[in-house]
Design a protein that fits this description.
The chain is of the alpha+beta class. It contains 15 helices and 21 strands.
Amino acid sequence: MASIEELRKERQKKLKQLVTAGMDPYPVTSARTHSLEVVRDEFSDLEAAETDLWVAGRVMAIREHGEVVFFDIFDGTATIQVVMKHDQVVSEELFTLFIAAVDVGDFLDVHGAAFTTQTDQPSVGLKEWRIISKALRPIPDQHHGLKDKETRLRKRYLDILMNDETRELVKRRASFWRAMRSFLEESDFLEVQTPVLETTPGGADARPFSAHHNALDMQVFLRISAGELWQKELLVAGFEKVFEIGRIFRNEGISAEHAQDYMQMEFYWAYADHEDGMEFVERLYKHIAEETFGTLTFTIGEHEVDLGDTWERYDYAETIEQIAGITITDASLDDILDKLGDYDVYVAEGERNIVRATDLLWKQCRREISGPGFLVNVPTELSPLAKKQTDDPAVVAQFQPIIAGSEVGKGYSELNNPTEQAARFNEQQTLREAGDKEAQRYDDAFIEALEYGMPPACGFGVSERLFAFLMDLPIREAQIFPLLKPDR
């Protein structure tokens, strides 16, 4: 079998043949008058009218039969067979040049008319052709395609080209975000855009990426939330309902559920609380599922999930006690670390505090919950931006959708008391100074904004992890172009 370099050299020779024959192998424009989707959908009318067509696309297969050449072209909308008969091409030279210089993978303009072959195959009868992009590397074989998963992710453009499932994934991602955006807009939420570069990253417990801003000579951070603190400042400014869909960045570990560069939506809703949020998010998720997948029933790993079922509520402490057999309100740090040891979970030295250890224990317990439902009554120290419950200040007015053993979103009644928010930030800063790099930073500017007054509000965020879960894929396989280490 010839090497890639040998094949490239052979195709470069063919490129020179095309140039010698007077063809520009990379012209500025295409002569296309009809997409292949239009030809497919209107084929009978086009054939009856003997419509003169220019179609275009990538050559996906070539079959030579003496004086007749059959080839398939694909333009991103559909595929159609083209039939080139020696006696129907405008010149002998054009027929010969095709045989000598055109390869699978090349893009062509094809001039001809719609007709049906003797085997009832809708086709285009070729009169003339021209090259519009010469491919110097061969595309994978259509029947065998790309089998290696790493190669498929690294050369995603070929994976999309050769695999209908991957192409459908790209379309479904678009449908997923479109469904979310339309639901929010129809509910009178205003889409906004907030900074991606921040001087103080806030809105989440996460380690940020940092960079140096040359013009201002200062350190900046890529945001770790979709503008949570900025959006709440918009509530201070008088907006009632706002949301943002955008990329966020977290310099954390890689897993089936975690990426470092991904899409997230967050909304903030003045005069609403966490109870309003749960009712709204349940309707939002059902809408997204129906619009994107046409169903409310999903198989996700070992879990069977029906979003149409009653959404249960899972009390944080009660659920841990039921599953792990430990009462977190009485347990010491050593008790929780010992229990984590039973799950083979190692806790880094700088993160060995009661807050982080309890959160890690919950993450082991949640794996057994299929959902759908909401995690509620999370301890106050685990959520520094949420309001305390009125009847139990030890827990916050927070909710997290639980699907297939994981949280896929987080919302709460937003903390709008500037004095308490400052105290919570100080608690987080203490954890940071003790070595917890994911603890939140003190944000003076946000405290100042709160001192001007922010109405009661519900905030909520969900990332593309929800899409990955509904697709039953690891998150990087559900992304179009996941981040990978260079292979050269």
